[in-house]
Amino acid sequence: MMQGVSHICAPYCYRCELGLEYPSCDIACARQLEKEIENQGPETVAAFIGEPVMGAGGCIPPVPEYWPMIRSICDKYGVLLIADEVINGFGRTGKWFACEHWDLEPDIMTMAKNISGCYVPLGATIVKGELAEKLPLFMHVFTFSGHAVACAASLAAIGVMEKENMVEHAAEVGQYMLEGLKTLDKHPIVGEVRGLGMIMAVELVKDKKTKEVFTAREAIPDMVAKRMLDYGVFVRSGGGNGSVVEIAPVYTFTKKDADTVVEALDKSLTDAEKTM
Ligand SMILES: Cc1ncc(COP(=O)(O)O)c(C=O)c1O
Fold it and tell me: Is 0.90 surpassed by the pTM of this model?
């Protein structure tokens, strides 16, 4: 919404805004960045900001070519690349940072949430050395910035994650759970199951062929989420189009817990389908 910001379409293959199909699309969504930089005038573009795996947008892991292409377009035009790892960072996608999945080196990285295991509010920004050196010193005040208690809690949480190999665990259980969720494709209202590590989504549709989404009035994704709560599992319905059941378990999740979720979702989908 900020003035001077323009957008390109998301690498959302299931609902490609450009109406193309992977891989024949030649990753047109990434190439759109180059067109937009040219449109805007390269000398006016400071940075490109993106979330490596889109979280609140409905858990959208991009195709493998996407981020390397974005990086090389940014390099070509001298545009900074900012990776928003607020949701992705500190293990969520099964690596410490989602950027690692594509050996992506952003110039600036934002982070929060799991930096402290979510126990204490803390947010942080990392800036590449050569950029930091050129930044003028200026006063940018928040009452609680650099708070010692939050930093100590965060160091403790990171220590536990390292000691207990939680990120590797998240990768393993996430992959196992994703395979379980994929079996739910048998349901007529399951459009797509996707995920990476411990961030997963089941996108619901009225019709598998047309991919028509449920209306707010029909509220089937909400109903599925509510039914899951009855079965003892808390998930969120949402995503960009409101038709996505988003699942992001804690890193201590076991394969048995994963089975419980898949079973609860299976039953909740059946219950919802009966009402249609
Ligand atoms: C991807 C992403 N970026 C940024 C933010 C905002 O972070 P904060 O609330 O720490 O300012 C959020 C908040 O949910 C988020 O999900």
Answer: yes
